[in-house]
Amino acid sequence: MKNFLRTVAIGILLILGEQRRQAGILEDVMEGKARVVDLTYPLNEKNPYWPVGNYTPFRYEVIANIKKDMVFSGRYSTPEHLGTHIDAPNHFELNQPSVDQIPFEQLVGPAVMIDITDKVEQDHDYVLSLSDIEQWEKVHGQIPDGSMVLLHTGWSKRWHNFEEYKNKDIQGCMHFPGYSKETAVFLIEKRHVRGIGIDTLSGDCGNCSAFQVHHAINRAGKFILENVANLDKLPPRGFTLIVAPIKIEGGSGGQCRIWALAPK
Ligand SMILES: [Zn+2]
């Protein structure tokens, strides 16, 4: 009993300490005591895109240049779901907020990173399991309520090769890792996450055709971050995420800049 109480007390102190650190993290960044990790890929015409239906690559053209026009200016076109982007709650569910309606408070908060790179190396169709979360929590403590959860699968190694990134088999079925429906539901119902993220094209795995993770997350009014970069530069917990999506009125999602503020 004594040991149990001591463990609980230490746990509470750790959480309070972490909250205090996170509350001051912006000050720490400005004083050079914390680091900023940009989790955003640069947009360009080589970016992988969702290779189905009417989705198209990113396009950019110069419409004025300094030599000729005395000013440099460009124009671009892109699907909303290309590059590092957010899936708004209305992406897969009716009557849910569009990207411009997601409140700031939902886009800033504590975050954790779950590393499943070892498992994905063995199995490209690997999906996060409840026992992976249990194992993570045994080592790092419970995922704080209201966190954003980032799944590090190692897929970013393929970002610069679209064929390898979508990893289609001869039948045209894609193969890359993802969350399972059970873990999405658990993270919503038991950890009250603000949203989830992943370093692949989709929160669902490549050969998961029913989009159960998208439906579960969007039904709960939550978002998914996709093609998230630089997850290997993050600690497992104790960092703060800032997600800044483009404000497309009524949009189903869109490009966003994502920063992680982490202790040095
Ligand atoms: Zn998307």
Can you walk through the features of this model?
- The chain is α/β, with parallel strands linked by helices and 264 residues long.
- It has one domain: 3-Layer(bba) Sandwich (Glucose Oxidase, domain 1).
- Helices cover 28% and strands 23% of the residues.
- The protein is built from nine helices and twelve strands.
- Strands 4-10-9-7-5-11-12 form a seven-stranded mixed barrel. A two-stranded antiparallel ribbon has the order 2-3. Strands 6-8 form a two-stranded parallel ribbon.
- Strand 11 and strand 12 (253-263) form a beta hairpin.
- Helix 8 (181-189) packs parallel to helix 9.
- The longest helix has 22 residues, at 2-23.
- The two termini are 37 Å apart.
- Zinc ion binds next to strand 4.
Number of helices: 9
User: Which word captures the global form?
Assistant: globular
Q: What ligands are attached or bound here?
A: zinc ion
Kindly give the count of domains.
1
| CATH-defined fold name | Glucose Oxidase, domain 1
Low-confidence stretches: none
Question: H/E series, N to C?
Answer: HHEEHEEHEHEHEHEHEHEEE
For CATH, the homologous superfamily is named as Putative cyclase
Give the biggest sheet.
Answer: 7 strands, mixed, barrel
* End-to-end gap: 37 Å
What fraction, in percent, of the residue positions are helical? 25-40%
Using only C-alpha atoms, the radius of gyration works out to 19 Å
CATH C-level category: Alpha Beta
Q: In terms of structural class, how would the helical and strand content be classed?
A: alpha/beta
- Average pLDDT across residues? 94
Find the count of extended strands (DSSP E, 2+ residues): 12
Beta percentage is 15-25%
- The CATH architecture comes to 3-Layer(bba) Sandwich
